[in-house]
Amino acid sequence: MASGEFTVSDLRRILHEAAGESDGADVGAGTLDTDFTELGYDSLARLETGSRIEREFGIKLEDTALLEAQTPRVLIAAVNTQLTVAGAS
């Protein structure tokens, strides 16, 4: 289980593992506020990404929270919120 802060690098790596290296645009500092659909990631890719995040970081993300996180910045914040809650337990 990973711990600490969930970063844009973590998200980029997990998105590529979930959707494939050639699918979707690269996520980085310049695309944090770009909608996932504009980046080429559909809801299935985001759900798979969420599952991988949960396994790797030992947290639980609600499906609705995953689908409502329309941009990388919002998803990173949601993951970090859960990491904070898990760390406080």
Automatic annotation (TrEMBL):
UniProt keyword annotations, A-Z: Phosphopantetheine, Phosphoprotein
Keyword Cell division applies: no
Pfam families per UniProt: PP-binding
Entries under SUPFAM superfamilies matching the protein: ACP-like
Gene Ontology biological-process annotations: antibiotic biosynthetic process
InterPro entries according to UniProt: ACP-like_sf (IPR036736), PKS_PP-bd (IPR020806), PP-bd_ACP (IPR009081)
Keyword Phosphoprotein included in the entry's annotation: yes
Domain Carrier: 5-83
Entry's Gene Ontology molecular function annotations: phosphopantetheine binding
Protein name listed in UniProt: Actinorhodin polyketide synthase acyl carrier protein
Species whose genome carries this gene: Streptomyces uncialis
Taxonomic path: Bacteria, Bacillati, Actinomycetota, Actinomycetes, Kitasatosporales
